[in-house]
Write a structure and sequence with these properties.
The protein has about 210 residues and is an alpha/beta fold. It folds into 2 domains: about 150 residues, 3-Layer(aba) Sandwich (Ribosomal Protein L4, Chain: A), CATH 3.40.1370; about 50 residues, no CATH class. About 30% of the residues lie in helices and about 15% in strands. The protein is built from 6 helices and 6 strands, in the order ββααβαβαβαβα. A 6-stranded mixed beta sheet has the order 2-1-3-6-4-5. α1 packs across α2. The longest helix has 17 residues. It is elongated, with a radius of gyration of 28 Å. One of its GO terms (molecular function) is structural constituent of ribosome. Belongs to the universal ribosomal protein uL4 family. Keywords: Ribonucleoprotein, Ribosomal protein. One of its GO terms (cellular component) is ribonucleoprotein complex.
Length: about 210
């Protein structure tokens, strides 16, 4: 069993340790490598783009007769032989870099990264998040009291409220997302992962 610390935001104090069942997972960093490779590849898109002769704007009139000149035949000014003509086998923006990996690898990657975070006391549960009127000052006081403001914090919330996103936009070290948008890349990027409900953590941990 793992112990996860729970804090009260209103009174800025430690409440209790919540026990969560430990899931077995082989410590294999290649799991994260495969996931990050998939994540970054799926975000990538092709920008290089060239025009072939069908996309070039110009006349289709035949320049000269087909035979008798002793040179290569020329169909139109769009011919790749001429300056300003189409490009043969050039790069296009239709290329896709998507990679697929097994669901088991994704599940094991989640367990691996969450186990690592829980062991290092980097996963936290907060109480009364919505009862403090989403006050920035209260959150900053909480961070300064128990942690360092220079560290990176990822808040994972159950409900969506636009005011929260606007208020925390000026803080580079603080990011707020919904639990539906969680991924391993963010879990690894931010040092402390803060949940507003233990049920969200269990849902992610057991998915």
């Amino acid at each position: 069993m793992y112990n996860i610390k729970m804090y009260d935001l209103c009174n800025l104090k430690f409440l209790k340790n919540i026990k969560i069942k430990k899931l077995k997972c082989i410590k294999n960093k290649f799991l994260l490598y495969f996931y990050f490779k998939k994540y970054l590849s799926n975000k990538r898109f092709s920008t290089a783009n060239t025009k072939n002769r069908s996309l070039i704007r110009g006349s289709n009139k035949k320049i000269c007769k087909q035979k008798g000149l002793g040179v290569a035949r020329k169909g139109s000014i769009k011919n790749p032989l001429f300056k300003g003509g189409g490009v043969i086998f050039g790069p296009t923006n239709k290329k896709k870099y998507n990679i697929k990996i097994n669901k088991k690898i994704i599940k094991k990657s989640y367990i691996y990264i969450l186990n690592e975070k829980i062991i290092n006391d980097e996963i936290i549960i907060i109480n009364n998040f919505y009862f403090i009127n989403n006050s920035i000052k209260k959150i900053i006081k909480f961070i300064n009291k128990f942690f360092y403001l220079n560290d990176k914090f990822l808040f994972i919330l159950k409900e969506k409220k636009y005011n929260i996103y606007k208020k925390y936009k000026n803080y580079k070290n603080i990011k707020i997302i919904l639990y539906n948008n969680i991924n391993i890349f963010l879990l690894k990027k931010y040092k402390y992962i803060i949940f507003d409900s233990i049920y969200i953590l269990k849902k992610i941990y057991n998915k």
